[in-house]
Amino acid sequence: MEDNYFKYPKTFHFSWSKPDPHGNDRVHDTVDHFVGKEVVVTEKLDGENTSMYCDKIHARSIDSGPHPSRTWVKALHASIRNNIPKGFRLCGENMQAKHAIFYDGLPTYFFIFGIYDEKNTCLSWAETEEWAEMIGVPTVPVLYKGIWDKDKVHACFTGKSVFGKSEQEGYVVRVADGFHYDNFIYSLSKYVRPGHVAGDTEHWSKTTYKANELRK
User: Fold this and answer.
1) How far apart (Å, rounded) are the C-alpha atoms in residues 96 and 76?
2) How many domains does the chain have?
3) Which CATH number does the domain housing residue 156 bear?
């Protein structure tokens, strides 16, 4: 943490997900933290984790520097920062640059997947949707809402993104209720398609920049 700025935590994989064998991904060996609870399943978009405050914007690293793929989202932040209450932060996916998946039908380049308040509590999904609508920024696509059901969660991966003709990177499951930052680990889990990230592949930020396409 740096003052009141927070690095977004890593989301653990489900046991049936295939994390990067060369990375430091963590895996949940149980789904007990979801059983019996209302959950929200959203499409996992292949972008850059980004946090916006009323006075700052950064990628996952709080001291992230400039990059061509961050120009659009910085302009968006400048236009909405006055609508972000002090102590709040919007966490979402910056989709301007192509990473492993090329998107050809995005409605915009930024999608919210979480909003934290001044007590460092992640708002419930219902509250998140209300704030997103009020601010004028969409949330990541919702694939399922309801009581935890492993079969229904598995069915959320079709291989095809909600957007255009793009592939689907995976999905993220979160509890529908709000939760504190300290309880993040057991409030979310993710599934990522096999082979999404190859260990010997150069990081997207080190390669020639290519923008995803916005929907016409």
Assistant:
1) 12
2) 1
3) 3.30.470.30
Dihedral of the CA atoms 65, 68, 69, 70 (nearest 10)? 50
User: Is residue 74 domain-resident?
Assistant: yes
Domain with 48 in it = 38-197
d(CA 3, CA 118): 13
Cβ atoms of 182 and 155 closer than 8 Å: no
Q: Find out whether 113 and 139 touch, Cβ atoms under 8 Å.
A: yes
pLDDT by 10-residue block (mean), the chain, 216 residues: 82 86 80 98 97 96 87 97 98 96 96 98 98 98 98 98 96 98 98 70 65 93
Give domain status of residue 173, yes or no: yes
| 8 A C-beta contact, residue 135 and residue 84 | yes
Token pair 């961050």: residue: 70
